[in-house]
Amino acid sequence: MIDFTRRATGRLEQHPLRFRLNNEIHARPPVALEDPQLISYLAITHRGVSAREELDHLRELGQAFAKPLPETEGEHLILDLDTFRLKWERHTEFSSYTFFRAPRAGDDPTRGALSAVSQEWIANIPGSLLVSTHIELRSAAEVPPATVMKQLSAASSRQLVASQVADGAAWVFTDFLLTDGWSRFMVIDSSLTARQAGRTVQRLLEIETYRMTALLAFPVAKEVGALLTRAEGELADLMDQMGGDGNPGDERDLLSRLTRLAAEVERSVARSTYRFGAAAAYYRLVEQRIDELREQRLTGLPTIREFMDRRLAPAMSTCAAIARRQEDLSGRVARNSQLLRTRVDIELQRQNQELLAQMNRRARLQLRLQQTVEGLSVVAITYYASQLVNYMAKGAKGLLGPLTPEVITAVSIPVIAGVVALGLKRMHRLLAEDEDGH
Q: What pLDDT does 248 receive?
């Protein structure tokens, strides 16, 4: 059957991404864990840091333990260094380093699984630290859950968050607070398989990581909220001024101010849209991972879901509300800008109509002046032409018989005037035809 499939698919051209896409759903599997186990986790934001730089740093760690770095086509690998294992994954905004180590006598309890790792190497990991977490995985036979609850409740005034997970196969204890820069979880294994234990630990680490990456939007929301409050007040003032009577110069000034406000709001939208969208996506992942834990409540103690609903959900609701408020303000500024621009355009059209009317009046006045001048021209031409006729008649009076020069001149005047008038009328007609032709 396998050979047949190979022969059948061998005739087809393979999509260049087929195997990569298929392998993607099998990537980053949880590490199977046997208790007792110490897990230390670092999430490092890698803005400005390339995957090659991170791999070079991992290669230095492997060389220190005489272990070559495994080949990797993706952005994840597991490095087994005998005394501990390191799982590295590169995500969109951060890279995660998860260290696994069985506890040994003489370990520094504050360093978790990092006891075997050089502090200098840890300090030189490229990027900025966002999440640091220690998880201690113990069996219920070694560490009874009731004893852990009693010790944690008595040792600290902090609120303990605890629940049974994996349908009662394990207990999880934490307070989600940082002690010496680390958050801590205690996982008590009652009947987990090695893969279940690995999945449970991975879910806890993802909850802690996605909780923090989602909260990256909260400071942005506060900053944007202050800007929106100021912008909304300024928009209200501009609308009040727009509603009053003002001259065109005032409206153009309002339009300029409104355009500046629109640019400011759109700049804020461009800078914060990704962060708000990412926060919503990370928050959904937090809720999904909590669902996968399948929590059961312990009497008198809040579960992880209750803690997130009380502490994380309000911050995410604030971010979502600020994002909606920002989009709404952007739309209102755009609508008001269009309204004011329409008013300015109407005023400009009115001014243009007045200007055209003035030009029409001036054109009619010029036409009347031209007609007056043309009338005077006919008179002038007729006068001078009649004088020429008079001179000619006087010179030929001996040939004219009974007609005197005065009579000839008088008779020529209407003839000359008619010819000149017809000539002007013909010239006007030719000019009009020429204008129509163009």
A: 63
